[in-house]
Amino acid sequence: MNEVIKKGIEKYYRNKDTEDYLVRCKESIKIPRELNLFAEENDIEIIDMSGGKYGPLQN
After folding, report:
1. Spatial distance between the Cα atoms of 5 and 44, rounded to a whole number of angstroms
2. What is the domain partition of the chain in residue ranges?
């Protein structure tokens, strides 16, 4: 997991790959049933952010 985070920081922050970042922000993500169950059991709220209300700020 640490490698995934390191690659993301390198790609999106250090190399400023804004175009790919914005494309990925628009992609829909399917949350596994197990993760939803874990969230429910641990009083964690999962919010659907695909409605356009949330997302990266653009200058």
Report:
1. 22
2. 2-41
